[in-house]
Amino acid sequence: MTADTQATKPHVLIVGATSDIALELARQMAADGHGIYLAARDVQRLEADRTDIGLRHHVPVELVEMDVTQTGTLKAKLYALDPKPHIIVSMVGWMGEQSEQEKDVDQAARIIAANFTGPAALMEAGASLFATIDAPTTLVGVSSVAGDRGRARNYYYGAAKGGFTAMLSGLRQRLSRTKTRVITVKPGFVATRMTEGMDLPGPLVDSADTSAKMIHRAIRKGRDIVYPWKWRLLMTAIRGVPEPLFKKMRF
Amino acid sequence: MASKGEKVAGWGMYPVVRGELSRPRSEDDLRAELSRDGAVIARGNGRSYGDSSFNTEGATSMLRLSRLIEFDREAGLLTCEAGTLLGDVIGAVLPLGFFPPVTPGTKYVTIGGMIASNVHGKNAVRDGAFGDHVAWFDLMRAGGEIVRCSAQENEALFRDTIGGMGLTGIILRAAFKLRRVESGWVKQTRTAHDNLYSVMDAFAASEEATYRVAWIDVLARGRSLGRSILDIGEHATLDDLDARQRAAPFDVRIRGKKAVPFAPPISPLNGLTVRAFNAYHYRAGKGSAGESVIDWDSYFYPLDALLHWNRIYGRAGFAQYQCVLPKENSEAGLTALLDTISGSGRGSFLAVLKRLGPTCGTLSFPMDGYTLALDFPWSKPTAKLLDRLDEITLAHGGRVYLTKDSRLKAPVLRQMQPTADDFRAMRELDGSAGRFSSLQSERLGL
After folding, report:
1. Residue A103 DSSP SS3
2. pLDDT tens across B222-251, in order?
3. Between chains, do B95 and A4 touch, taking CB under 8 Å as contact?
C-alpha cells in the first residue's frame, strides 16, 4: 500500500465478512476513515474486496481467518490483532434448512452454534479485550427478528437468534457502567446472497446497502437496539397475537 | 419476482419493457447466463438514453462486478471491474492527484458502459474519446471464453468493442490511463455569444483549450439563431487557487443532492416554460460571464446534483437527439438544424454544442466536427421532428449517437455509419449476433 493508506479512526473488526451486509458495512466504515479487519472462515475469498476497499478509501484493510464455532480460539485471535479494534461486529449467521434440522439433531446443533454459541463467545471475547482499552469501544451483535417469536418455518434459527438477543441484552446491562457499548441489530428481510431465490414480500425487503447504513448509524449514534421501522411495527403486532391464534397462522 | 418482471428502461424512460435484470456476482454466474437460451446484453448503470442497454427479456446488470483491482501510480493506470462507477473512480484517485482522462456529463456511468459507448467529453479535440485511453480490457465472448483485447492483442476485437454497444461480448474488467491534476478545481472562462457564427468563431479560436462546451438557446430565431453561452475550462493549478483551497487542493466539499421524487403524468416542460427557461438561462449566463474557479463536481456534473432529473419530462419519457457534423459542413448543418427546431417550436430544455475530434472504434460516434445534443419530451410530433433532423444530419455527412438513440431507422443508420454493415457481418461470423442483442441492435440490424 502507498504512504497515503492511513486510518483516521480506530479499526473495526467485522466477523462473518463474506456476507453482503458485512462488506457494505466495511465499505461505509472505510469511507468514514476506519481501518478494517475482515474476518471469516474462508476469508481468502475476500482478497479482491480487500484490495477494492483499500484502493477506494485509502485505509488499511486486513483479512483474518476466524471460525466463531471454534469458541476456544477466539480470545487469542482477538488479542493478536494489532492495532486493537475498538469496534467488533458479529455478522455471523446461517439459516440452513429447517426441515433437515427437525430430523437431525446434529444439524440443529450446528445452527445453534453458528447463530448463538459462536457469536456469544465472540462478544464475550470482545468484552474481555475491550476491558483492556481505555477508550470508547463498541460491540455489535447482528441478531434477527426471527428470534422475536418462533415460527414453524425456521424455529431452530429463530431459537438461536432469540438466545443471542437475550445474551446481548444481558451483556449490555453488565457493561452499562463501562466504556463499552453493546448494540443489538435486528435486520428484517435483506436482499442478499442468503435470501436470493426466496419468495419474500417486496415492501419488507431492504437492500444490503440500507441495512449496512442502519448499522453504521447505530454505531455512530451509540444506540442500544436497532430495527428497520417497518419491522418494529410488524413485530410488535406479531408478538401481540394470542398463542391460540398464532399457532394456527401460516407465514 | 421474476415472473412479473420489473420495468427496465434507459435514462430517457422510453421505451420500457417488463423483463428481468439479473445481477451476477462472478464470471461463473455470467457463464451460466450465456449457457442458457435467449439473448444477453450487459447493462451498466442504465444511463444510456434509449434502448441499447436491454432487450425484450431484460438485461445483465454489471453493478455487482464493481471492484477496483489495481492502481499503478507511476503509470497512472487504473484497473477495475466493468461495473465500477466513474464517480467511485474519482473518489479513489482524485485525492492522489488523478482524474479520468475523459468524462461524460454524469459520473453515474460504469467503466464498461463508457467503453461500450466510447463516451466523449468536453475535451474531445485534444484528448479523443474514452476508448483512446483504454490500455486493455477482458471480454467474455458468446461461448463463455475470456479474451484480453488491446491495441496489440486481438486488435480487431478491441476496435469493434470500443463503441460497440455491448454487442461483441461482456466487458469484465479494464485498465485505463488517468490524467494528473494539481487540484479538484476547474478554472472556467464564460463568454456569451449573440448567434451561432459568433460561438463557432469562439470555438475556432480556442482549439488549444482543454474543456469547451456551449449551451444554446434553441428557441432564439432570426439574427439571434444559435445564441449561446460558451464555457472554457482548465484543471486549476495550485497558482489558480486561493490560500484556503491551496492548503488542501483535493478537499472539495461536494454539494448535497436533491432528487425528483416521481415522474408527473404530464410534463411541466411545455413550449411556454421551456422558452422562459431558455431566455432566462441565456441572460443569467451573460450576466455571469468572466472567470471563476469551481469544484470538479459542479463543473463536470451539474445535472448530477438533481437525482432522477429525467423524471421531469413526465411518464411518457423523453428522447435525446445528439448528432455530429463534419467540421467543414458544420455551419450550414447547424443552421439548418436550429432553423428546423426553432421553427417547430418544440424547444429543448437542454441544448449543448461541443467540438469533437477523431477517435478509435468501428462504430464510434465522434468525428472531427461539431456535435449538438437536445432533449425533447417524447410524443408523435417529436418523432416526426427527429426524422427530419436525421435527414439534415445525413445531408451534411453527419451521424447520430447510438447511446442517446431510441428511434433511428436501420436504413438511415447504414447511410450515416457505413461501417455498420461490416460490424453486423463480423457479429454473424463470430457468433455474437446470435447471443448478444439489445432492442436497439434488433431495430438497427447491428
Report:
1. helix
2. 899 999 999 999 999 999 999 999 999 998
3. yes
